[in-house]
Every structure is written in structure tokens, then in C-alpha cells.
Amino acid sequence: MKLKGIHKVKRPLANGEVRIHYYAWRGGPKMKSAPGTEEFAEELLKHRAENAPSEVTTLGDLIEAFENSPAFAALAQTTQYSHKSSFKEIRKEWPRLPLKLTQQRGMKAMIRKWHHTFADHPRTADQMLFSLSRVYTYGIDEEIIEKNPCTGIERLYTGSRKENVWTPELIALFRAKAKPHLLLAFEMAIHTGQRQADMLLATWKQYDGTHLMFEQGKSKPGKPKKRVRVKVHSALKAILDALPTDTMRILNNSRGRPWSKSGFKTSWGKECDRLGIEGVTYHDLRGTFITDRRREGSTTEQIASITGHSIAEVGRVLEKHYLATDQQTSDAVILRMERTSRKQKK
């Protein structure tokens, strides 16, 4: 019998051997019995029974069970926040919907209709659909239900950010007129390529005068956070070395206090409106960093070692979101072709 939900972790030993550990679920208790045995199956059932919700009869009960589960606790805080926001709308739409009705014919059509009521905000609509689907997936994993009625419903958001990079003109404008505390956040992003959340949490202890150490917060459940050591560009070093270090965080608001995520987003948006900057976000500085480093000749492997992406993720960013309309990159192909032709003629 194939047991679902088992989490397997491979750990290398000092002598070169690899030891495999089994857990009842991702983030759950470690299994003591040998895999493939009757004792293993019994131990798994015992763990699941001890952690099973008391009674799940409605969709709201299933959401609550998921929120109290180890699977939810293993998610990043930003992901938990997004799910909880979606759950408010889901509970509002189906406050007492019997869970058994969600497994019957017609539920998918009902979900699709609800999904399309948010068509004016497609990204929000897709986030809520994803959260609802995740709840059903949890229910299937726990053997509470048998199918996910969200499967096959198409997403509404089809846009991309392939043209949304900061141009040299926008960069020059922000550097010339932005407020100092926001300019520092700008320079940190464009010189390191790190995520907004990780930079807002960066402390002076992470800066040793030549490098910045980041523990990147966006990691897969059950896996340790990735640490990257980024060499500080000379221009950024000059800025950091001139700042007072009497605060815990490197980036602070106008009152010298640490930023909250929402506070930074609001202040950044107001500053861009004041400067007349449209069509780009703070997150696009990360994509601009990737694009510019590739133009300079850095490989995807080298870029990935700094940004914390996998090599495949950097490739997807370059291919789908940024370089698809990068005129400089496409022009460079023909320019190299012309140089080769001239050399051949000579």
C-alpha cells in the first residue's frame, strides 16, 4: 500500500554516506519504524489520528483545520497572510456550506462563477482561487475529502512584467529627487538584487564592511533558509559607510524606526507618485538587477548565486519577464554577427 504525505529527507554524513529520515508529514514528527513495514503504517496512522481535527463537516471547518495544521505552520509568514486574507472572502461567500456538497457535481461551476466576480482585480481573484484550492488539497492529503473542485479552473491574470524594468532615465530621476530614507532602500535593491522583505529586515550586524549577509526568507517548507553573502558594490559601500550605525536595522523610515511591510509599500507608492514614476514597482528593481547583470555578461549561475533563485528560475525571469522585449540584448546578437563577418572578410 502506497502511503501519501510522507516527507523524506536525505542528510549527508561526515563519512560521505547519505542517511534518509522519514517524517509523518512535512514539518511533522519523525518516524521511528522502518519504511515499508506494517509497523510504519501503524505509526503513521497513529500520528495522523492524534493530529486530526475534531470534526470537519463544513468548508469553514476544513479551512480552520488547515489553519491549525503543521502544513500551514510550515508556510512563510507572507504566504500565511495571503491565505488568511483570502479565507475571509471564502467564508463570506460560503459561511456554512456542507463539505460533502463541495464534492458533488456543480461545485466547480459555482467556484468559477465566484472567481469571475473579482475579474476587475484578476491577481486578487487568482490568489483567492489558489487559497481555496490549497484547502481542498489539504483535505485530500488528510483523507477528509476525495477531490478538489478547483482543478481545471483557468486563472484570470495573464499579464507579465516583461517591459517593467527601471530604465536609466527613471533610475537617474529617482536618484536626483527621492527622499534620503527611500533612496537608501532603492540603492540597496539595485545593487544587491535581494527581496524587499529580506532588505527591510537587514541589520548592521549583517554588514562587515565588504559584504552583506542575507538569510533569504522565501524558502520551501521543511527546508532551511538560504544564506547568501553579497559583495557590496563600491557605490553602495560609500553610502553605507557614511551612515550612522546607532540603529538596529539598516533601512528605516523617516522617523528612524524599522519599516513595516505595509508602511514601506505605502511610502514607496507615494514617493513614486510624487516623482511621476509609473509602470514600475520596487520589486522590479530585482528584475532590473538580473537583466543588467546578464547584459554585462554574468552567467545565470553567477546571478543565481546572489539573488537566491535557482538557475532555472533566473532563466525563466530572463526569458519570460524581462529579456523578451529587451532591445539592447537582441541588438547585441546582430552586432556580434557583424563583427564576425568583418573578421571573416579580413
Q: Can you describe this structure?
A:
The longest helix has 20 residues, at 122-141. The chain has three domains: 1-51, no CATH class; 53-159, Orthogonal Bundle (DNA polymerase, domain 1), CATH 1.10.150.130; 168-331, hpI Integrase, Chain A (Orthogonal Bundle), CATH 1.10.443. The chain is mostly helical and 346 residues long. A two-stranded antiparallel ribbon has the order 1-2. It has 15 helices and four strands. It starts with 6 loop residues before the first strand and ends with a helix. It holds the Pfam family Phage_integrase. InterPro entries: DNA_brk_join_enz, Integrase-like_cat_sf, Integrase_catalytic, Integrase_recombinase_N, Phage_Integrase. This is Integrase.
Summed up:
The chain is mainly alpha-helical and 346 residues long. Helix content is 51%, strand content 7%.
Note the topology.
Layout: E1 7-12, E2 18-23, H1 38-51, H2 59-67, H3 70-73, H4 77-93, H5 107-116, H6 122-141, H7 168-177, H8 180-192, H9 196-200, E3 211-216, E4 226-231, H10 234-241, H11 261-275, H12 284-295, H13 300-307, H14 311-322, H15 327-345
Antiparallel strand pairs: 1-2, 3-4
Helix pairs in contact: 4-6, 8-12, 12-14, 13-14
* Topology as a string of helices (H) and strands (E): EEHHHHHHHHHEEHHHHHH
Approximate shape? globular
Strand order in the largest sheet: 1-2
| Fraction of residues in β-strands | 5-15%
Describe the largest sheet: 2 strands, antiparallel
CATH class of the largest domain: Mainly Alpha
Overall average pLDDT? 86
Distance between the termini: 71 Å
